[in-house]
Amino acid sequence: MLQLAGPSAQLFENAHFAIAYTGPTDGAAALGRRLEALYQAHVRLVREWNLPAHRPPSKLEVCFFARYDEFKSHLDRLLPDTPEALGFYDPNSNRTYLFDLATAPSVVAIRADVAQTRPAARDRVARRVAWLERSIIQHEAAHQVEFNIGLFRSAASAPRWLTEGLATLFELPLDPSGRPLEPLNGYRLYEFRKLYGGGVETLGDVRRFLADDEAWSGGRSYPLAWALTHYLREEHRAFLGALLRAVGAGRFPTSAAEREPILSEWFGPFDAPWVARFYEATMRLPLDASTFPG
């Protein structure tokens, strides 16, 4: 892994991760602490829901680059169809690839634009970058942890909304024991309200979204996946646990036609009243929108 990360790469290890890094050691150590907290958050989930899981056979490998151009060379090689990604988990190599977000061209440009503006504008940018950094690191590493402890066997065997929705639950700030420091993912709720606040009809076909991975439509699907996963965790926790156990055991079908009746039996008919209850419950969740950047 060190050779892959580059000639200047060094290795930082902790209980569950091996990080090849090209920047300062304290940055790698800070990342290591965040990743360990994320791992412990998954231990909490497994114990709370009584899910079958196992310790990974080896430490999970992470490449952490000091500069965007170092990261971009790996992104272009491994995920050529996603040129704008700011971090990713590659299931083929079983590695997570991250970089210092301050060097991302989009972040550099935004900071240059607001450098001469009021402090309030600079503070909003700083909050946005901090949220992006935390959410990207913890979201992508959550995928890595979940596949390596056995919650998911492969991306094809699990509904897309479930793999992404579960990862969004772990974007929260965490204490070292993995306990969340906030009650819910406020920024995903903020996104949900911005994208779907025009009424329940803006959600589209929720039944298809849950059963058919082809219904996934990029960035706007993430807050919907978060909202559905959050709602099912609160209202149908036992059945959501059953779904995770079936997926982890390889007993859940991959076709939309086979998935839909199983999901309907567990969670409800996904008819207009069901979707309305989900939508209203999500829109009622508490949110201080002033704390989030635009």
Gap between N and C termini, in Å? 38 Å
- The CATH class of the largest domain, by name, is Alpha Beta
For the record, the CATH architecture of the largest domain stands as 3-Layer(aba) Sandwich
**Average pLDDT reading:** 93
Give the strand tally.
5
Which class do the helix and strand fractions yield? alpha/beta
Report the portion of residues in β strands.
5-15%
How are strands sequenced across the largest beta sheet?
Answer: 1-2-3-5-4
CATH topology of the largest domain: Glutaredoxin
Note the run of SSEs as H and E: HEEHEHEEHHHHHHHHH
- Percent in helix: 40-55%
| Count of alpha/pi helices | 12
Q: Mind describing the biggest β-sheet?
A: 5 strands, mixed
What's the number of domains? 2
Low-confidence stretches: none
Task: Describe what this molecule looks like in 3D.
The chain is α/β, with parallel strands linked by helices and 294 residues long. It has two domains: 1-151, Glutaredoxin; 152-294, Neutral Protease, domain 2. It is built from twelve helices and five strands. It has a five-stranded mixed β-sheet with strand order 1-2-3-5-4, sandwiched between helices. A hairpin with a 3-residue loop joins strand 1 (10-13) and strand 2. The longest helix has 30 residues, at 119-148. The protein starts with a helix and ends in an 11-residue tail after the last helix. The model has no long low-confidence stretch (mean pLDDT 93).
